[in-house]
Amino acid sequence: RLRDAMTYASRMGKIAANVRASMNVMLDPPQFEVEFDADGHREHRLVSAINVSNNPFGDNSLMFSEELNTGHLGFYLTDPLRPAGAARLAIDILRGRMRHNTAITEMRARAVDLHFPKLYRKANCVLDGELMPLGRNVAIRLHPGELKVIVPQDA
Fold it and tell me: What is the pLDDT of residue 3?
């Protein structure tokens, strides 16, 4: 939302807007409550960030999965952060060591249900790079084998 409020006229301008928006978040990290159920593991926590990936992340700075057929979601919670902790997390992400940051809790699950008891009415989430309104209740399910892929016959 911060980046969308900024003006930019080029790709470099958009990158600069991303950097400025990231810095604003690092200087004032959000904190919010979430109740979650990850394959029967239920908990209520105060967090600064939640990330759910269609496969658990690998140890790399681009935050992509090294295995695309794990059959599990990667579910990541970030403890409430202060600016210094947010900066440490950003550095760990850039170094490909996000999973080793002590503020990160990593889980694997086939299904994750999220409930936000005190949802700010303008709360948003990012889905495939697009900013969208966040619902009070979110159900995330993995559907293995649902994506149909066309490959050459000799593959």
Answer: 46
Separation CA 61–CA 92 (nearest Å): 8
Kindly report, residue by residue over 61-113, the tens digit of the pLDDT.
666 666 767 788 989 999 999 999 999 998 998 888 888 899 999 999 999 99
- Closest Cα to residue 51, out of 63, 62, 61? 63
pLDDT at residue 86 in the model:
93
Distance CA 112, CA 60 (A): 24
Of the candidates 15, 108, 118, 113, the residue with the CA atom closest to the CA atom of residue 56: 108
Query: 146 CB contacts (<8 Å, ≥6 apart)?
Result: none
CB 102 within 8 A of CB 93: no
Nearest CA to 104 among 118, 124, 122, 86? 86
| Pairwise CA distance, residues 20 & 51, whole Å | 21
